[in-house]
Amino acid sequence: MVVVAASLCFWSLVGVFNGQADTGQIFSELRQIASAISVAWLSIFAIRRGLLTAERLITVIIYGMFCVSAVKMALVAASFFSNIDPIQITQSVFGEATRADPILFGLVRLDFPQDIVGAFALFALLAPSVSGVRLAVCRNYSSASLWCWGRDS
Amino acid sequence: MSKLFICIVVVLGSGFLTYSRAIWFIYVVSIFVAMIVQRSWKTMAVTILAVLVLGAWYYDVFNVVFEERFVAEAEPSDVGRIEQARDLMGRSRPDLSWEGNGSAFQYRQQNHHAKVFL
User: What pTM was computed for the model?
Assistant: First the structure.
């Protein structure tokens, strides 16, 4: 962690001393790198401490990826049935990190940074002997969440 | 339809909507690696057969998509990469500045609407 932090500081200082760096851009990039590393580090920490199993973590990631993918599909599908602009909605909700352009057949290109995770989610789904993912486990979690939510409300 | 099937279809559809050659390539690799790991040769054969059948059935659609992504749009999309590769090959030492090769600043300068060239 110290080496990573030192490396990030070094590259930031190179940009600052170069005199042409945009400070806001530096912090934006640093925030993204730091969040990616910290989430991975926290996951490994939780798994090693026994707070979380790797299978559960992968399952949560798969369901998160499913939600993002479903939102994208729903946005594009909705553009065919109602008068909405998926590009505008995507840009206003998710910001400039998302690439949204019209493509063929009236479809819209929606390129989220998280899309790269989809390949790993597919691998985990198609290779359960390696990932240990069982979707039935998540069904229990969904039921438990719904039960807790219903009890609170 | 099982939950597994729905999950795979939705994630695959999302992958197509990225319209990114790199993402498409990684998706294909992950699918085939998973089949190899699982030793599900029959599934692999059925998948390849299904792709061939669908490719032949919807030849026009596949052809349009392929031309648009790998021929027509690929040319302007790759200009920045080619320039950067040439510049990088011509350097005798690395450029550590914020505007150096591969930096986000340079990407945005060359292609303001894209964050990365994919």
Answer: 0.72
Continuous H helices in B39-92: 41-57, 59-66, 74-89
Q: What is the pLDDT of residues B43-68, one digit of tens each?
A: 899 999 999 999 899 888 888 888 87
Judging by beta carbons within 10 Å of its beta carbon (0-12, 13-18, 19+), is residue A72 exposed, middle or buried?
Answer: buried
- Boundaries of every domain in chain A: 1-52, 53-153
Condensed to tens digits (0 to 9), the pLDDT of residues A31-65 reads 878 888 888 889 999 999 998 888 888 998 999 99
**Cβ-defined contact of B23 to A70 (cutoff 8 Å):** no
Q: Which of A18, A68, A129 sits opposite B38 (nearest CB)?
A: A129
Length reported for chain B: 118
Domain ranges, ordered by start, for chain B:
3-72, 76-110
- Selected for mutation to probe chain A from B3, B6, B14, B26 (highest A CB count within 10 Å) is B14
Contact yes or no for B96 and A126 at CB 8 A: no
